[in-house]
Every structure is written in C-alpha cells, then in structure tokens.
Predict the structure.
Amino acid sequence: MPLVQRTELLMGNRFDLGVVSSDTDRAERAVEEAIVEIKRIEALLTTFKDDSQTNLINRMAGISPVEVDKEVYELIKRAHRISNLTQGAFDLSYGSLDKSFWNFDQKMAQLPSPEKALESVGLINYENIELGEGTVFLREKGMRIGFGGIGKGYAADRAKKVLQELGFENGVVNASGDMNAWGVREDGNPWKVGISNPDAPTEVFAEFDLINSAVATSGNYEKFVWIDGVKYSHTIHPKTGYPIRGIKSVTVFAPFAELADVLTTPIAVMGVEVGLDLIDQIAGVACLIISDENVIYSSKSIRDQLRS
C-alpha cells in the first residue's frame, strides 16, 4: 500500500504527516483532521497570538491566577514533573530569558560578565509557577512561560492519536525531527530514523528502527555563535545564564513524542554523566549523546541492544 503524506508549516516548524493506505481520499481527509488538531493546539500554546492562553498567563504574571483549559493545565503539570525530575534543567519559565540579550547574531563578539549573564535568567524558576484548582499563576511580575521544549512533541502525539482513532494502523508524524511512528512503512519494514552528524547535519551516521515509538534530537548546530574560536550553542543554562558546553547533540527515544521532546534539552544542560544516569532510570527511554570531542555515549538500554 502507498504512503499518503503531506507537509505543512505548523507551530513555526515543518510537519510531515503520513499514513499507509490504499484509500487515498480517506487518508487525505484523515491527515487534514490531524493538521486541524495541530492548529488547535498551536492556538492554545502560541506566544504569537494575543488571545492565547499562554499569553494571558504571561500578562497576568505577578498579578493574579489565570483559569485555563484542562488540557493546558495538565500539560503544564506534566512539564512541572519533568522540571522536578531534572532539578530545573527543563523549565517552562525559560520563556523569561532575555532574548534580546542572548540574540546569537553575528554581532555578538564576546560573552557577558557572570553578573550580566545571571541577570538574564533571573526570572527563570519553575517553582514560581503556581498550579491552583484549574488555574496557573506566575508569582513574579515579568515572568513568562513558553512551550518550545514540549509543545511540538505534544502536538505530534495528538496528531498520531487522531490518525489512529480514524483507523490508520501504520503512519508517521515528523515534527522537524520530533518523530512519532506506529505500525510499519509501505514496504512492510519498520520506520527508520537517521541520526545526523552534528558537524555535517545533512549526513547521517547511524540509523535506528522506530517501532511504535518516538524520537527527538536537539543539537548545537541549529543556532550558535563563534567567539574567539569557540562555538557557543543557543541553549542557555537556566542556572548560570551562560551557553551550555560539552554536548553537540542529544537524541532521545521514548514511547511518545512529548517525553522524547521534553528530555533532549535538559540532558544537554545536565551533561553526559548526569543525563545518562537520569535516562537509565526511566523505563522505556533511551538516549544517544555526542560530546564536543565527538565521543558517542549511549544509555544502558542501547548498549545492551548493541551487545545482543
């Protein structure tokens, strides 16, 4: 059976959606429904629309709690658990980062002083996101939340759910690298994911089967700046205010895309040893890390798989 697929720009990212089906018309209608679902989520979570629930929460920071849809509340609640699990390496209030300060354009010629760097992350603190009875309150005025580290994966999961509920047993949703696959490809073989070489992102150095699971990758090749011959990633450590160092790329395999998406950045922030230790404690999750020295590290589950 053929793969019926479609590409759309959604949530500021390229989404590729496809299902394996001999009924092209039915498949195209289903993919359209999945796209409508992603657009619905985008309207809830975006910071680019004044009337989104995210912007309402941000506008009322330090003023009063905001009542939100149960869906948004539960997503924030899950994000809060990951913040606890990673000791703040993942933090929804990362939206408070002074982005005009950390713009990573070519004019940036030197790193700021430790005091200025720390000041740029002064409002980032997930413990100041207060969850009430269906309400969200940011305790500090000027705080902002953003769903950039979890929303894309959540949307991919929701699109998959729509397609499965419409009866499609084989399909894939690829949200700019956050890939969620189920069943098999049109040729009957498992879906595959290629891991990019961080030094040459168009080159794939390893391939893995993706069997009813998801994968997400985050790398320092996406946005960076060179200062005095040193490459600095766009990812800022929420505790120090400085760009993270030591890791070029993190790939996480998980049962669903939201979990894979939400774990990539905190692992890069925590570093190889602590990041792998965390992954080894989460059932069904695996990880591949490439260090600045091009050393490849993997979680225990991948090491065990390679030895078998």
